[in-house]
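FW: tagging you since you asked about this chain on Friday. Here's the raw sequence from the shared folder, copied in full. Didn't touch anything.
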Amino acid sequence: MTAALSEVRFVQLKCIKEINEASVDEEPYLFVAVVEAGTGLTSLPRVNVFQFGPYTNTDSGEVKTPKANENPLLLSRKNTVAALPGCVIVAALMENDNSDPLIYRLALRAELSTFMLGNVMATEAVIRTNVQTIMRNVLTGKVFFVKDDDFIAMQDIRFIENNKVSIENTLPFKSKQGDYTVTFRLDRSGLPG
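HL: got it, structure written out here
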C-alpha cells in the first residue's frame, strides 16, 4: 500500500456557553500534546506540546481560530492508514485565570519527554494512558501549581480509518470551568486512486 502524507491541524475553538465567573470574560487556551513512539535504537520518540491562545474576550457563540503567529499544523507524517499508528494526540482546554500558560506548556513537555525517554519501547496503548495521566496531573495541580483551577477538560484526538482525503473531528470540552467544542482536521494527500 502506498503511503499518504497525513497532516493534522487545529481548526477552531467555539465557546458554547460562558460558565466561569472568576474572570470578567472567558480566556480559553488549548494545549495539544503530540507524542510519536520511537522504534527503539533506530528512532527515538518525539514529544511536542503546542499552545493556542489565550483568546481574550471570548463570548458565548464565538469562534476562535489560530492566531496569525500560531501554526495550526500539529503533525505531518507519511503513513498508509488514517489512524496514525504509534502517534498519540491529546488536547487539554484551559481557562486563563491564575497561571502562566508558558510555564504549563514547559512543564508538560518536560514531564512527557521524561516519560517517553524512560519508556522507548512502550506500546501505543501504554503511551496513550500515560500521556493522559501526566497531562491531567500537571494541569490540575497534582504535580505543579497546587490549587490552580485553570483546567477545563481533556480529550483524546483520534480519526476513524477511512479513505477520505479530509476528516474533521469536533470534540466537546465541558466542565464547571467552561463549555466549548474544539475542531481538528486530518488532511491526506497522495492516497492511492
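FW: The mean pLDDT is 84.
HL: agreed, and The longest helix spans residues 101-118.
FW: great, closing this out.
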